[in-house]
């Protein structure tokens, strides 16, 4: 009997060509069968940017699939300049794998893509986890480029990973959590790593987020999927108040805000969040 891969660090990298002609690169782990959990990643991130402690906790009982969007990592093509186009690519990828229903775990830009996917294909997603993200037309989402470029500069000057500044508070606890998180995402998998994000693709993603922030809001009262929303209380990239805004507008949604933490609050509090997310997705 074939034993499923249970560690994200050991998940093989596969490719599938979808109906739109894009050859999507992806990794999967956990026991196959039933509805899979598809991971939607953040700005400037490839397959290697997922926190293995959170992925492995979900994959203990579930088939988990992570993928590179068009133009990201080793997936060919150009990054789309709208979140809605990214959502259609995600739909093409999921249907190419033969699934007509999935659960979604998303972070940051990935959460915006997940919302756009549900708006266009409401029956595709059964359960939804939105972390560090905001709604279409959300206040100040269109200003994300400013802090992003500033923190990349600060990281460059200190020879640090930009995520240490972008995702975490710059206090003693935040700095320690940042180092641990970067080590988990860079040290767990040393071979067969993904291709890096291209600068042009990153800039296009920022433009797409800006458009998302300036667009007419979705009617989130139509979102019927059980939804878990989580963030830190000091998110400088996608303001934490937007998590509360989505919670108010999505019927029956659950909200968790972690104290003294930023955009990457779910990574800082992974010991509390990973089992919570896994249990929610297994309900």
TrEMBL record:
Q: Which UniProt keywords apply?
A: Hydrolase
* Entry keyword annotation includes Translocase: no
Residue span(s) of domain AB hydrolase-1: 36-266
Q: Does the record bear Hydrolase in its keywords?
A: yes
Where does this protein have coiled-coil stretches? Answer: none
Top-rank taxon of the source lineage equals Bacteria
Q: Name one GO molecular function term.
A: hydrolase activity
Q: What is this protein called?
A: Alpha/beta hydrolase
């Amino acid at each position: 009997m074939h034993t499923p891969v249970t560690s994200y660090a050991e998940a093989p990298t596969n490719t599938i060509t979808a109906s739109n002609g894009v050859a999507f690169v992806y990794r999967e782990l956990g026991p196959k069968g039933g509805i899979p959990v598809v991971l939607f990643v953040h700005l400037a991130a490839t397959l290697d940017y997922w926190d293995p402690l959170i992925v492995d906790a979900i994959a203990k009982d579930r088939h988990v699939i992570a993928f590179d969007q068009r133009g990201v990592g080793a997936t060919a093509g150009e990054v789309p300049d709208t979140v809605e186009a990214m959502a259609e690519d995600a739909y093409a990828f999921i249907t190419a794998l033969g699934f007509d229903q999935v659960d979604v775990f998303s972070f940051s830009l990935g959460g915006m893509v997940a919302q756009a996917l549900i708006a266009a294909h409401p029956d595709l997603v059964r359960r939804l986890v939105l972390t560090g993200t905001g709604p279409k037309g959300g206040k100040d989402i269109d200003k994300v480029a400013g802090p992003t470029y500033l923190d990349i500069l600060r990281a460059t000057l200190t020879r640090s990973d930009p995520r240490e500044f972008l995702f975490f508070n710059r206090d003693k606890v935040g700095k320690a959590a940042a180092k641990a998180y970067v080590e988990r995402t860079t040290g767990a998998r040393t071979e067969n790593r993904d291709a890096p994000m291209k600068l042009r693709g990153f800039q296009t993603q920022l433009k797409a987020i800006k458009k998302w922030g300036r667009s007419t809001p979705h009617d989130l009262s139509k979102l019927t999927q059980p939804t878990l929303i989580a963030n830190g209380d000091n998110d400088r990239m996608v303001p934490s108040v937007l998590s509360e805004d989505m919670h108010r507008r999505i019927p029956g949604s659950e909200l968790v805000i972690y104290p003294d933490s930023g955009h990457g609050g779910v990574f800082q509090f992974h010991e509390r969040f990973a089992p919570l997310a896994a249990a929610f997705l297994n309900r």
